[in-house]
Design a protein that fits this description.
heterodimer, A: alpha+beta, Arc Repressor Mutant, subunit A, 3-stranded antiparallel beta sheet, 16 strands, B: alpha/beta, Amidase signature (AS) enzymes, 15 helices, globular
C-alpha cells in the first residue's frame, strides 16, 4: 500500500462589516425583521441598477494587503449566472478574471511549527438571501425567502492547495479569521453565518506531483465540523484508493449527527455559470496612491504583535497567544503594559482575575468597565506598596463592578497599606505583648512561629499592613 | 387647431400666457385617445384620473403665476418598459402582466419635477425585442398612417400615439434602433442619445450595454426640450456619463454652413426600398443646398453589425431576464409542483417566442466552450465598429443614412422570418453598438403615403449637432407637417 499525501484547499467567505450593502444603501447588519433590510435593488426588481459600495472595495484591498496580496490596478465585476430562489437577479455579481487581490500568503503557527499557505485570489461579491422552510414557519407547503442578507458584501478568499492536514486547514482558517478581525473588515461571526468556508480535499501518493481527484465540502461555519469532515474524507478516500478504486469528483454534505459525508450533487450536474462582464458596472482602476495609504493605515497584525510581546515584553508564548486573541485585547494589554512598565504583572491580572470576573459575569473584555488604565494603575499601586497583592484582588473586583479607578477604591474603602513604621511598631508591640508563648518559641529557635505573629499583625490591621515591613520590624524586635 | 395636435413649444406658449389650461390639453388628448386608440392599440394602460389630478395641480401653479418648465402640464406617454411608481409596468410581457413597480425610474422623477403629465403606458415588443411591436403579449399596435401596417418597434406604441396625436410626446427606449426605426415608420422625430446621456435607472433592462431612453416628438424643437428635461448624470446609474449637459434649445439654429456630412457607402446598398433611397438622396441634396458639404466615407465593419448585435444583446438579455422566475413578482405557473418545474413552467408560459429565442441564443453564446468564439469575438468586432465611427468623425461632423431600409411593412409579413425582421435594424444597430447618438426625422412619404425617415448620427455627446442639422432641415422642408388621416 502506498502512503498518501493529503492536499487541501479552502475557499473562505467572509461578510464585510460595511454599514450598507454592496450595491444599494440598505443596512448590511445581521438580523432585523425578515425582509426589512431590503429595497428594489437588493430584491432584484425589474429596472434597478447596482452602484458599487466604495467602502467594500476598500475593505477588500485592506484584506488583500493584510494577506500579502498583489492589488489589481484594473478590476471589474462579472455576472455569475444560476437560478436559485435566494438569488433575486438570477445572477450573482462577483469577480471572475480580474479579482481585486491575488498572489498573497498567510503565515501562521501550528504546534510551534511555522506554516505558510499561499492565497490564489481574494475577490468581492454579493451574498445571497436566505431560504426559510416549513420547519421554521410551520407551513409545509411553502418556502419563503428573507432578502435581508441579499447583496451584503462578501469576500471570497481562495487558497492554493498548500494545506497538508485537516488540523492545518483549521489553523489556516483561524489565522485568516484573526487577520480579518484585526483589520476590522469583518466580524467573522460564525453563528450568524458571516464567516464560512468550502473545503476541497484530495489524496496523492506521497512524493508525486499531480493532484488527485478531489471532493468538496460546502459552506461550513464551524471549525469542529470542518475538521471532522476533512478527517472523515481523508479516511474515506484512503480506503477507496487502497481498494484500487477512484474517488468520484463531487460536492459532499457532512452530516453532523452521523459524522459521515454524502454526495450533494455530482459533477454531471455541475453548473456552467456563464460568467460575463457586468455591463451595469463600469470596470475601474485602483489608484496605487490609495493602496499605499491603505497599507500605511493597516494595523499591526496578530502574528507580528505576538512576536513583539514575546521579544519586547519577554512574555511566555502562552501569554502572548492569549493576549492577541482579538485586536481589542491586544491593544488593551499593550496600553496597560506600556504605562505600568510591568508587562508580566499586567498579563497575570488580565489572564487571571479579570478573566475570572468576566467569566462569572458572562461579559467580554470589550463591554466590561475595566480599561487598560485600571490594570496599569492596579499594577502600579501594588508595585509602590500602596496595597498588597491580596488587597488588589478585592480592588479589581470592586473596579469591575463599579467602574471606579483602583486608587479611588483604595481611598473610599481605606485600603491603603500601612507602611508607616511607627504606626506598625505600636501594633507589633501589642501583638508581642499578647503572645508571650510565640515570642518564647522564636527565641528558642522555632522560627516558624514568626509567621503566626505576622498573621496576627495582618489581622489587627485588616490586611493593610505592609507584610514585608511587618516581617522586618518583627525580626528586629525579636532579635533585640 | 385641436390642442392634441400641437407641439410642446406651441402649448407651452399658450399655457404661459394662460390662454389655455393643462386640463384642457389633457382633455383634448384623452378625447383623441378615445377616438383613435381602438384602431391603433398604442396604449396598454391609461392613467386618466391621475392625469387630470396632476393637470389641475399644474394649472393652479400657472394661475399663481409660477414660471414653470416647458414640459409642465404637457401630456406624456411612457413606453411600458419604464418603471412608473404605482402604475402597472408590463414590458409587453405576460410575465409582468401584474407588475406594479414600487418606485419611479429616474426619468419619471425628472418628468414629474418638470410638471409633465403621465397619461399612460404604451405598447411595445415584449422586453423591447422586436422591430414591429407584433411581439407584444397583449396586442399589436397599428401604424396610424395605414392600419394594415406595423408602426415599427420595439417602441411602436410610443411612436404611433405621437403620430396619431394621442400624446404630445412620448418616451421610448432604443437598444438597436427601437426609437429611430418606429419614429421613421410613423413619421415623427425620434432621438437615441449617446449611451450614458440619460439614466437607465428604472428602465427594464434588455441589453444593458446598449439600452438608452429617448423621446418621440412632433418636431425637432420639442426633441430639444425633452432632452433638456431628461439628460444628466445619475448616481443611481454607474454607466450614466458625468458629462455636462448643454441647453439643447440653443442648438436650434437654422444654419448648416460648412458642416461636413459623411455618407457611408455601406449604408447605401442593394436591398433598400427604392422610394426610401430616393427620399434620402433628396434629403441629402437639400442638406447640401443648405450649406453642408457631402463626403463619401467608408465604414468597413458595418456588415458585421447585425451579427454582432445579435450575439451581445441576447447574451446580456439572457442574464437580465433571469430574474423573472416567478419567485417575487410577475407570473407564476399554477401547475408547478416543485422548484424546477416552477422555473420551467413560469418562464415557458410567461415569455413569448421571440424572448425565448433570444434567451436561448444568449445562453448559448455565453456557454463554456462557446464564449470565446461568440461573445468575446462579438465584443472585439464591436470595438472595430466603434473605430469605424471614430475614424469617420475625424473627417466629418455628422453621418447621414436612411433610418430603415423599408417603410412600414404589413402586419404578419415578417413574423415567420426572424432574420428578415432583424434586418430592420441594419442601419441603426451599428451606432447603438458604438454608443453614438442618432436621430430620425421625417424626410418624405412613399406614394402610398407611408413615412420615410432620415437618420443623422453624431459623435458621442454631440446631440446638439444632431439637433442643429435636424432643425435646419426641418425649417426648410415641410415633411414634418404631414399628418396621418385617421
Amino acid at each position: 500500500m502506498p502512503n498518501y499525501e493529503t492536499v487541501i484547499g479552502l475557499e473562505i467567505h467572509a461578510e464585510l462589516a460595511t454599514h450598507s450593502k454592496l450595491f444599494c444603501n440598505c443596512d448590511a447588519g445581521f438580523g432585523g425583521e425578515v425582509n426589512t433590510h431590503t429595497c428594489p435593488i437588493c430584491t432584484g426588481m425589474p429596472g434597478v441598477l447596482p452602484v458599487a459600495n466604495l467602502r467594500a472595495i476598500e475593505y477588500t484591498i485592506r484584506a488583500g494587503l493584510a494577506m500579502n496580496c498583489q492589488i489589481a490596478t484594473y478590476s471589474k465585476f462579472d455576472r455569475k449566472n444560476y437560478f436559485y430562489p435566494d438569488l433575486p437577479k438570477g445572477y450573482q455579481i462577483s469577480q471572475y478574471d480580474h479579482p481585486l487581490c491575488y498572489d498573497g500568503y498567510v503565515d501562521f503557527e501550528l504546534e510551534e511549527q511555522a506554516k505558510r499557505v499561499r492565497i490564489n485570489r481574494i475577490h468581492l461579491e454579493e451574498d445571497a438571501g436566505k431560504l426559510v422552510h416549513g420547519d421554521v414557519t410551520g407551513d409545509k407547503n411553502y418556502s419563503y425567502v428573507d432578502f435581508n442578507r441579499s447583496s451584503v458584501p462578501l469576500l471570497e478568499i481562495v487558497s492554493e492547495p498548500d494545506i497538508r492536514t485537516p488540523e492545518e486547514a483549521i489553523a489556516y482558517w483561524r489565522a485568516v479569521k484573526e487577520i480579518l478581525e484585526y483589520i476590522e473588515v469583518s466580524d467573522c461571526n460564525m453563528e450568524e453565518g458571516s464567516f464560512r468556508c468550502d473545503a476541497n480535499i484530495s489524496l496523492r501518493p506521497t512524493g508525486t506531483d499531480p493532484l488527485g481527484i478531489r471532493t468538496e465540502l460546502k459552506n461550513k461555519n464551524s471549525f469542529q465540523h470542518v475538521l471532522a469532515a476533512l478527517k472523515y474524507e481523508e479516511n474515506r478516500q484512503t480506503r477507496i484508493l487502497d481498494d484500487g478504486g477512484q474517488v468520484k469528483q463531487s460536492t459532499l454534505l457532512y452530516d453532523v449527527e452521523t459524522g459521515r459525508t454524502s454526495p450533494m450533487r455530482s459533477k454531471e450536474e455541475a453548473h456552467d455559470y456563464r460568467y460575463f462582464p457586468e455591463p451595469d458596472l463600469v470596470p475601474f482602476e485602483v489608484d496605487p496612491e490609495e493602496v499605499k495609504r491603505l497599507e500605511t493605515e493597516l494595523p499591526e497584525l496578530p502574528s507580528t504583535i505576538r512576536q513583539r510581546f514575546v521579544e519586547e515584553y519577554e512574555l511566555p508564548s502562552y501569554d502572548a497567544e492569549f493576549l492577541t486573541a482579538t485586536r481589542y485585547i491586544a491593544t488593551f494589554f499593550d496600553q496597560a503594559a506600556r504605562s505600568s512598565g510591568n508587562p508580566k504583572a499586567c498579563s497575570n491580572w488580565i489572564m487571571g482575575d479579570l478573566s475570572a470576573l468576566l467569566n462569572s459575569a458572562g461579559q467580554t473584555i470589550e463591554d466590561c468597565q475595566i480599561t487598560a488604565g485600571h490594570i496599569s494603575q492596579l499594577v502600579e499601586i501594588i508595585q509602590d506598596g500602596t496595597i498588597s497583592g491580596k488587597i488588589a484582588k478585592d480592588v479589581i473586583a470592586d473596579c469591575f463592578n463599579s467602574g471606579k479607578m483602583p486608587t479611588q477604591v483604595v481611598q473610599d474603602k481605606g485600603l491603603a497599606q500601612i507602611s508607616d513604621t511607627s504606626e506598625l511598631e505600636v501594633i507589633i508591640d501589642q501583638v508581642l505583648g499578647r503572645n508571650p508563648k510565640s515570642v518564647a518559641d522564636i527565641q528558642d529557635g522555632k522560627m516558624k512561629a514568626i509567621g503566626f505573629l505576622v498573621g496576627q499583625v495582618m489581622k489587627e490591621t485588616r490586611g493593610k499592613a505592609n507584610p514585608q515591613l511587618v516581617n522586618q520590624i518583627l525580626r528586629q524586635k525579636l532579635q533585640d | 387647431m385641436p390642442l392634441c395636435t400641437q407641439t410642446v413649444h406651441q402649448l407651452h406658449a399658450q399655457l404661459k400666457n394662460r390662454e389655455i389650461t393643462s386640463t384642457q390639453i389633457v382633455a383634448s388628448v384623452f378625447d383623441r385617445i378615445k377616438q383613435v386608440d381602438d384602431k391603433i392599440g398604442g396604449y396598454l394602460t391609461l392613467t386618466e384620473e391621475s392625469a387630470f389630478e396632476a393637470a389641475a395641480a399644474v394649472d393652479q401653479r400657472f394661475e399663481r403665476g409660477e414660471d414653470l418648465a416647458k414640459l409642465a402640464g404637457i401630456p406624456v406617454a411612457i413606453k411600458d418598459v419604464i418603471c412608473t411608481h404605482g402604475i402597472r409596468t408590463t414590458c409587453g410581457s405576460k410575465i409582468l402582466s401584474n407588475f406594479v413597480p414600487p418606485y419611479d425610474a429616474t426619468v419619471m422623477k425628472k418628468l414629474k419635477s418638470q410638471g409633465a403629465i403621465t397619461i399612460g403606458k404604451t405598447n411595445m415588443d415584449e422586453f423591447a425585442m422586436g422591430s414591429s411591436t407584433e411581439n407584444s403579449a397583449f396586442q399589436p399596435t397599428r401604424n396610424p398612417w395605414n392600419l394594415e401596417t406595423i408602426p415599427g418597434g420595439s417602441s411602436g406604441g410610443s411612436a404611433a400615439v405621437v403620430s396619431a396625436d394621442a400624446a404630445i410626446l412620448s418616451l421610448g427606449s432604443d437598444t438597436g434602433g427601437s426609437i429611430r426605426q418606429p419614429a421613421a415608420l410613423c413619421g415623427n422625430v425620434g432621438m437615441k442619445p449617446t449611451y450614458g446621456r440619460i439614466s437607465r435607472f428604472g428602465l427594464i433592462a434588455f441589453a444593458s450595454s446598449l439600452d438608452q431612453i429617448g423621446p418621440f416628438t412632433k418636431d425637432v424643437e420639442d426633441c430639444a426640450i425633452a432632452l433638456n428635461a431628461l439628460c444628466g448624470h445619475d448616481i443611481m446609474d454607474s454607466t450614466s456619463a458625468q458629462v455636462d449637459v448643454p441647453n439643447f434649445e440653443q442648438s436650434l439654429v437654422n444654419d448648416l454652413q460648412g458642416l461636413k456630412i459623411g455618407l457611408p457607402s455601406e449604408y447605401f446598398v442593394e436591398g433598400i426600398d427604392p422610394e426610401v433611397e430616393t427620399a434620402v438622396h433628396q434629403a441629402i441634396a437639400k442638406l447640401e443646398e443648405l450649406g453642408a458639404t457631402i463626403h463619401n466615407i467608408s465604414m468597413p465593419h458595418t456588415e458585421y453589425a447585425i451579427a454582432t448585435y445579435y450575439i451581445i444583446a441576447p447574451a446580456e438579455a439572457s442574464a437580465n431576464l433571469a430574474r423573472y422566475d416567478g419567485v417575487r413578482f410577475g407570473y407564476r405557473s399554477e401547475e408547478a409542483e416543485d422548484l424546477t418545474s416552477m422555473y420551467k413552467q413560469s418562464r415557458s408560459q410567461g415569455f413569448g417566442e421571440e424572448v425565448k429565442r433570444r434567451i436561448m441564443l444568449g445562453t448559448y453564446s455565453l456557454s463554456s466552450g462557446y464564449y470565446d468564439a461568440y461573445y468575446l469575438k462579438a465584443q472585439q468586432v464591436r470595438t472595430l465598429i466603434k473605430q469605424d465611427f471614430d475614424q469617420a468623425f475625424e473627417t466629418v461632423d455628422l453621418i447621414v443614412t436612411p433610418t430603415s431600409p423599408t417603410p412600414a411593412f404589413k402586419l404578419g409579413d415578417r413574423t415567420a422570418d426572424p432574420l428578415q425582421m432583424y434586418l430592420s435594424d441594419i442601419f441603426t444597430a451599428p451606432s447603438s453598438l458604438a454608443g453614438m447618438p442618432g436621430i430620425s426625422i421625417p424626410c418624405g412619404l412613399t406614394k402610398n403615403r407611408l413615412p420615410i425617415g432620415l437618420q443623422i448620427l453624431a459623435p458621442p455627446f454631440e446631440e446638439g449637432k444632431l439637433l442643429q442639422a435636424a432643425y435646419t432641415f426641418e425649417q426648410n422642408t415641410d415633411h414634418h407637417l404631414h399628418r396621418p388621416e385617421l
